[in-house]
Amino acid sequence: MYACIYIPNASGDSSAALIDCATTFSPRVESTSAGIVVFDAEGLERLFGSYSEIALKVADAARERGLEANIAVAANPDAAICAARGFGGITVLNRGSEKSRLRDLPLTVLAPSQEILETIERWGIRTLGAFARLPAVQISERLGQEGVQLYKLAQGASMRPIVPHADALRFVEIIELDYEIETIEPLTFILSRMLDQLCSRMRSRNRATHEVRLRLGTHMRVLKLPLPVRNPRLLTKLLILDLEAHPPGAAVKRVEVEAIPTKPRVVQNGLFVPLSPEPEKLELTLARLKAVVGEENVGAAEILDTHRPDAFRMEKFHLGERGSLRMGMDSTTTSSCSLSLRLFRPPLEATVQLRNAAPSWIAFHGVHGSIITARGPWRTSGDWWRPNMWDREEWDIEVCDVFYRIYYDVHLDRWYAQGAYD
Amino acid sequence: MSATYVELHASSAFSFLEGASLPEEFAGVCAHYQMPAMALLDRDGFYGSPRFHLAAKKAGIQAHIGAEVTSTRGIRYALLAETREGYQNLCRLMTRMKLRAPKGKGAITEDELAAFARGVICLTGGDYGPLTKAIPKNDGHAELERLVDIFGRENIYVELQRHYDRKEEAINQRAITLADTFHLPVLATNGIRYALPHQREILDVFTCIRNHRTLETAGRLLSQNSERLLKTPAEMTRLFYDVPRAVANTVELSHRLQFTLEDLGYEFPKYPVGDGETMTSFLRKRTEEGALSRFRPYDEKSRHQIERELALIEKLKLEGYFLIVWDIVQFCLQNNILIQGRGSAANSAVCYALGITAVDPVKMELLFERFLSEERGEWPDIDLDLPSGDQRERAIQYVYQRYGALGAAMTANVITYRGRSAAREVGKVLGFDTETLDHLSSLVGHFEYKDESDTLEAQFQVAGFDIRDPRIRKFLELCLSLQDLPRHLGQHSGGMVICQGQLDSVVPLEPATMPGRNVVQWDKDDCADMGIVKVDLLGLGMMAVLEDSLKLIRDHYGEEVDLAHLPENDPASYAAMQKADTVGMFQIESRAQMSCLPRMRPERFYDIVVQVAIIRPGPIVGNMVHPYLKRRQRREKVKYPHPALEPVLKRTLGVPLFQEQLLRMAMITAGFSGGQAEELRRAFGFKRSERRMKEVEVELRKGMNENGIVGDVQDQIIHSITSFALYGFPESHAASFALIAYASAYLKCHYLAAFTAAMLNNQPMGFYSPATLVKDAQRHGLKVKPIDVTKSGWLCTLENGALRLGMRYVKGMRESVAHAVVEARTRAPFTCVDDLARRVSDLQKRELILLAEVGALNFLSPEHRMHRRDALWQVERSCRRTGPLLETIDVRDMASPLSQMTEEERLVADFHGTGMTVGPHPMAYYREELNSLGVLRAMDLATVLNGTYVRVAGAVIARQRPGTAKGFVFLSLEDETGISNAIITPDIFQQNRFTVVGGRFLLIEGRLQNVDNVISVKADRLEILPVSEAAVVSHDFH
User: Which residue is closest to A378 within chain B, CA to CA?
Assistant: First the structure.
């Protein structure tokens, strides 16, 4: 006999709970589809009582997990599924009674393809009983193999073995400590041991990881790696550097490390490709830099595609192909700049005096004096649909034999020195 | 004004998504800045030029014409027309590039540029200008040399634009050096794309739409700043302080540009006549010939009118125009294509004599000035109605063939941004998700009537947008700014322009989406404004119905019906009209018409003319309908606003109903001339302007005062004229339509089967769905047979006096397959479904299923009649082919184990598969229950007293919320006995919105209004009835 647990309108995340519920009764569980599991209930009477009692207990177990399920028990898995889909609550179909019990159920319990369902409905067939009464050979002529299979299901006569559910590969190490750890140093030793274990398991399964999750009590860190890694020393170093930047808020009594598996990296360097730093080492260096200067200040600057001056964002640094152009840098931009501009970051606030609407005197950050020449204004404005729109007028000026770029922020009504020309 | 600067490089919104202001805005701002002239250079066309020209004329500035023309190298040449030859060269150049490329594409080659360079001045700048492109690459010297070779040294201006951009300035400095080297003049322009600073936002939105980006992802495609606006001469002088000659040269060049659109050089084609003939003599002969046969009698009055018209036609040199239209009519007559002139042409006795129109204007006393007037100085407008579809296309192709592909073209139709399209596209650009935008679009009103709350702002609020949110506020602002800006160019439904010589030297031509057609870059108003004569070849569904009916009558009744000589005053036709039994009849079938007909009780042709014209917004808004009907029923005395108006208003019992009457009223009471009166009509017409209306009203009052018409009488006459001018129907037009209406009534009353078949074969058209037409015909005794693959063709046909539905009514069936079925069965009858499927290999499973579902396969086997499910059972097997080896084995298991469809199932299948049923009406199955609920049948209502509280029920076949009805909704319900009408007040509508809009079968309770045999129920309560799942279709009028 087989039991089916069915959650009407199941959401995606209920599958794990359903499997969990079914495995408490039987080791042979099939995760049939979203919201449906079937398990082999043969021989469970000795443990849990009659099939009705088993069904009741399964319903209780599901309810404990917050699931309102229909439970059906039948001699074959598909009849159990049909009954669970078609009848609310608990249903037990005695061996041989499947056809008569299922006959009034609608065709949808068979979950046929849309095309076949429409065909059968066009025939005016609405129930399994009506479908089961049609001549088998002619069904085969009209609906093919799928029709024949549905026809058997409608008669409750399908027999197939279930396909047992197998656990997915997980690489997790957990240590419950007898004592609390309050500093990073002892943790290094523990983490190193755990990661050794994990990496050795991954190696045996030909796997590496691109994401390591570390749980220290309630403190959780996720280490995302740009490439698959299974070097325990590297992983330990990276985790420790990360922990130094983001230490746990309380003493640690439980350590859990999970490595998300992926296929290992296979690299064949080209014979004539110049050597670049090993990715693992680069990752370590970047992690060290982040620990020193802050995460947001490490990476590769990417120039944004906008007219907004000096707009860029920091992207994660990775070794790309040499010679590729960065977004936002086209040939016209580069060729038109004959001078280099050394930018002040952030721009320096300036005091400017105007004559005939052009700057004539300036003072900023130790520089002050009359402006010998001023070219401009060069106007840019944009992002008018955003709260942080901009509107500014730039000037190129010469003060004390040095050329500067200054600008007037129209919204802030302030002058800034943006940089000096080399 | 003393000019210091003239803007000579502007792109308007007619550069389609590359400019953000209308030409009129440019002209307005330009005049405000006291600039004496301006040049419009839209991308690859003169799309906005006529509007710019007219607006500039009005504003007192000179409009220079030019275009930015794209080359195959990606360069855009800013070209100005210096002379008419230059303009014509540009027209030809752009026509050439457009006609050889798909719509919206096309580019010129450099060789072509050289061939069409005479009379053209080239500016070198602009974002994609030749020097702007060349200087960063190779200093521009060679490029400038090339331009000098093409255009000549005196026709090149080195253009400088300053938008406060470093890169641009570097190019400018090099351009100045080059100009010095070549001794060429420099020219300052601002390369403007909008008139006012805030319109930069619209330009950015357009840029996103054009590049399929959002504002967030458009990056540097967007404008760098807001400097591409029209600047004042002072600003431009300041901006070019270091090159003052660049500014001064703009004024000098403006003086050089002599060409304006006043000097278009358009000539209507001459009609070729034989030796010894002139167009005048030829026209006179054709008119005389026609007059003798058509005027009955051809009396002195008619002769006099024809002579008067011919004299004016000759004076205005319009003989060619009349002969060309006559030629089109002749072509149609020779090819058995029904054709009839409508509109103001029906006022002309010459048009009647030439067979262009079908109404005798002399007998009808129609006003010729409405058609043609010396004072107006514009071309007459002749609209020709043709059967919609292939026949109309034949007439259009004839015109192309006669005048050449470059001699004739369709007029354009400028598609502009409206509420829904603006909201959708701006929403996308701002990054709103599709679902939200779909929701918003669905809320933009469907019905014609919009209450005050139906603003875009209100629609935003209903869609759940908080308009206080700055982002939403911006969304709304942009949507409003986009209203009426051009989006793309479409094709007008029937307007054709023809030219003596080459039309492509008058206006650029483009390929239309429809193969074999060209379209000019101007819409019909632009063409009219530019003095280009137009002939409208309009498709009219009813003309096609009449034509098809005549053919069916000829083939099946063996009778020849001549529409030109139908029996006058046919009693059956008038009896049907008096009973409002007019489903399917042209122009008099709508619910509003039906509610008027029993009161009107038409007895002669002129009553139909009035009937066609009376149910229009003009008479309704002007409160003319009730006074007219009361006077007709002799319940009110006929009186005239002023005794002098009696001759004008006598025929309509003292109530003005036609446009001609208001013109004559103005002529009589205010002493207007014919031309002035026509001006009045235009002032109050669709392109009305408050200022112009006020001016005309002042003139009217002045004239009336002079004639001693003052006080209330004056106010009353003014009210009639002003409320009427916009929507009033011309009497001539009404008369043309009345002829078609009478013909349709006659055919329906005497040849119901042929008429109904023709109506069904020309759907969609008219007021009612095919289902209603079929039920109406059945109630009139016509036997309608279902679709049957052994009998039906693609179209509906006649079978021994009965109507056989055609396979065109099987939804999703392909016409070619239906023809293949007919062809196969003429070789040998089908024996079973397998046989059908095997012999018509194009039949797809989907089509076979559809045919089986609607019962079209029931009669396949001569010895065994199948039911629909038997057929469905066979279809499933037939569609699983067994392969060639077993295919020919005859397996005749006709019977199936399936049970027959129930009546409800058949009904659902009929409506789902064909949109109608030839069996009993769905309501008939429900009648017993309805009787128990006390629901009356539609036919019973006539015997119920006015004011009785009743219940009616039926399938909703029409919902209307007309703009003139102040929010009232009118429903038509159909049951097995006929149609009943219900009126729903705005309050009841608001309370039952879902029921009214969504219910297929309704039960309505309320008080019966039965006055003068006009019957309707004023609804108090509405309820959806669970009659059937059948998808009955209602025509909802928006």
Answer: B164
The whole-angstrom separation of Cα A145 and Cα A152 is 11
Q: How many residues does chain B have?
A: 1038
Give the separation between CA B6 and CA B33, rounded to whole angstroms.
Answer: 10
Q: How far apart are CA A382 and CA B216, in angstroms?
A: 11
> Could you report the predicted ipTM of this complex, rounded to two decimals?
0.74
Residue B1029 pLDDT greater than 50, yes or no? yes
A119 interfaces chain B, CB cutoff of 8 Å: yes
Which strands sit side by side in the sheet containing A2-6, from one edge to the other?
A29-33, A36-40, A2-6, A70-74, A90-92
CB neighbourhood size of B1029 (10 A):
14
The arrangement of strands across the sheet holding B802-804 comes to B784-785, B802-804, B797-799
Phi then psi dihedrals of residue A412, to 5 deg: -85, -15
CB B635 within 8 A of CB B599: no
Amino acid identity, position B345: A
pLDDT tens, B646-693?
988 888 998 888 888 888 888 889 888 877 777 777 776 655 556 677
Burial B814-831, CB ≥16 within 10 A → b, else e: eeebbebbbebbeeeebe
Q: Return the amino acid letter for B134.
A: A
DSSP 8-class letter at B18: S
Determine contact, residues B215/B14, Cβ cutoff 8 Å: no
Going by their DSSP bridges, the two strands B518-523 and A300-303 should be labelled as unpaired
Q: SS3 of B575, please?
A: helix
* Closest among B357, B378, B383, B410 to B682, alpha carbons compared: B378
Contact criterion met (CB below 8 Å) for A175 and A190: yes
SS3 A122: helix
Which positions 140-169 of A are in contact with B (Cβ < 8 Å)? 141-144
Measured CA to CA, the distance from residue B520 to residue B512 in angstroms comes to: 9
The SS3 assignment for A404 reads strand
Question: What backbone phi and psi angles, to 5 degrees, belong to B188?
Answer: -85, 130
Residue B872 sits at the chain A interface (C-beta within 8 Å): yes
Around Cβ A335, how many Cβ atoms within 10 Å?
10
Distances in Å between the alpha carbon of B452 and those of A386, B74, B877, B963?
32, 49, 60, 12
- In chain A, what are the domains? 2-155 (3.30.70.270), 171-262 (3.30.1490.100), 341-421 (no CATH)
Residues of A in contact with B220 (CB under 8 A): 305-307, 328
More confident residue, A104 or B514: A104
As a whole number of angstroms, the distance between CA B390 and CA B429 comes to 41
Nearest Cβ partner for A336 among B167, B204, B899: B167
Distance between CA B210 and CA B222 in Å, rounded?
A: 11
Residues paired with residue B959 on neighbouring β-strands, in sequence order: B971, B1036
Cα distance between residue A404 and residue A394, in whole Å: 10
**What's the pTM?**
0.76
Residue with tokens 């790696």: A225
* Cβ neighbours, 10 Å, residue B255: 13
Pairing, β A171-181 against β A90-92: unpaired
Confidence at residue B449, expressed as pLDDT on a 0 to 100 scale: 43
CB neighbour burial string for B985-1011, b if at least 16 within 10 angstroms, e if fewer: beebbeebeebbbebbbbbbbbebbbe
Which residue(s) pair with B958 in the sheet? B972, B1035
Task: Report how far residue B268's alpha carbon sits from residue B552's, in angstroms, rounded to the nearest whole number.
Answer: 40
Taking only the tens place, the pLDDT of each residue in B18-28 is 999 999 999 99
Other C-beta atoms lying within 10 Å of the C-beta of residue A369 = 13
Alpha-carbon gap: A56 to the closest alpha carbon of chain B (Å): 40
A 314-333: CB under 8 A from B: 328, 332
Beta bridge partners of A312: A303
